[in-house]
C-alpha cells in the first residue's frame, strides 16, 4: 500500500478478521467463575474494564477474586501494578484467594507452609508484578513493562490498582486530558495485542440513597473525567452494605450488549474465613 492510502482499509483488507469474528475464533467469551455474575458479564479480549465503588467496598479484593478465577478456569496470566500495598502483601492476598484461607499469623485457620508453597507455585506461573521505585510511573512506562510481560510470559491481562498512582505523561495537561490519553493508550495496546486491562479507580463523589447509605450512582462519579464512562468497554460498581453484610456487584456499562454481558447486578457475601467473595444465589435484582 502506498503512503497515500496508508490508514485506509477495504473489506478485502480485513476479510480474515471479519471471518474470524463470524467463526467465533476471536472475541471468545470466558465465564467469570461466579455463578451469579456469569449472566451479566462475559470476559472477552480485547477489553478495557473499569472497576470502581465506595471506599472500603472491596473493589480491589473483588478484582483479585476475578483474576484468580480466570487463572484457575482459563489459565489466564496477569501482570499487576498495585503500589498501595507492597509486592509481598499483594502476593499474600493472592495466596489467600488460592487457598481460601487466611494468610496472617493471627488467624487460627491460617494456611500451612505446605499450602503456601503450593499456592506460590501457582501464582508464580500466573501472576507477575511491576513496580517503580522512588516514583509513580506514567502509562507509557507501565505499558512498556506490560508488553515485556506479554512477550516473555504470555500474559492475558494488565491490572492497575488504583488509577491515581499513574502519573501524567505530560506536565502541561489537566486531569481530563490525562485520563483521555491514558485510556486511549491502554485501549490501543489492548487492540494491538488482544489484551484485557482492568483498571481500579476511586470515585470523586458519593451520595446517600434513600436509606442513607453511601453509593456510587454511575461511572460519571469516578474521579477526574466523564471519559471513564464514555471510553470503558465494561464498567463495574462495587458497593458494600454493612447492615446486610453483603456486597453488590453492579455491571453499569457494557459496550457490546450480549457479547460482553448486560446491565444488572448481583450480590456477594464476603467470607472472612475463606478471604473471598461468595455468590449469594438467593438475591434477585
Outline the fold blueprint.
Layout: H1 15-22, E1 47-53, H2 59-74, E2 78-81, H3 87-99, H4 113-126, E3 127-129, H5 139-153, E4 157-160, H6 175-193, E5 196-200, E6 207-208, E7 214-215, H7 227-231, E8 234-241, E9 246-254, E10 264-271, E11 276-279
Parallel strand pairs: 1-5, 1-8, 2-3, 2-4, 4-5
Antiparallel strand pairs: 6-7, 8-9, 9-10, 10-11
General description of the model:
The protein is α/β, with parallel strands linked by helices. It has a single domain, classed as Rossmann fold (3-Layer(aba) Sandwich), CATH 3.40.50. Helix content is 32%, strand content 20%. The protein has 7 helices and 11 strands. The strands form 2 sheets. Strands 3-2-4-5-1-8-9-10-11 form a 9-stranded mixed β-sheet, sandwiched between helices. Strands 6-7 form a two-stranded antiparallel sheet. β4 (157-160), α6 (175-193) and β5 (196-200) form a beta-alpha-beta unit. α2 (59-74) crosses α3 (87-99) and α3 (87-99) packs across α4. The longest helix is centred in the middle third of the chain and has 19 residues, at 175-193. The mean pLDDT is 91.
